[in-house]
Design brief:
Blueprint lengths: L1 H9 L1 H16 L18 H4 L6 H9 L6 H18 L5 H21 L1
Helix pairs in contact: 1-2, 2-4, 2-6, 5-6
The structure holds the ligand Cc1ncccc1N[C@@H](C)c1ccc2c(c1)OCCO2.
Length: about 120
Amino acid sequence: EKKARLAQDSTTKGLATCRVLLAELEAHQDAWPFLTPVNHKAVPGYRKVIKKPMDFSTIREKLITNQYSNWETFIVDVNLIFENCERFNEDDSEIGRAGHSMRIFFDKRWAELLM
Ligand SMILES: Cc1ncccc1N[C@@H](C)c1ccc2c(c1)OCCO2
């Protein structure tokens, strides 16, 4: 609700909640393709196709080094992971399915924690 959202925006509570959320994402059984940056030497074409790579370890580093001004900037990076995944991977593939599963989990959890 609006008041709660404003409170989340301005306080560090919003970013503390992001740490909780990130830990849950990293611990998820379907997180394996997204834990570390995609090694473009191991994945032909990735560097050309995906202009803004993102992964959970990069988000963790950015959280720790205060690079997110609020939880909304955090959400942008998490969603980038799922957008990149959908762009590069078939829906009917191991990684594609993992991406859909993680997005469903994330959408549910951040709504519970941050809305
Ligand atoms: C999220 C993503 N999208 C597209 C491609 C890869 C990946 N993930 C990497 C870690 C990855 C996941 C699985 C792999 C791999 C790399 O390299 C070859 C063996 O299988």
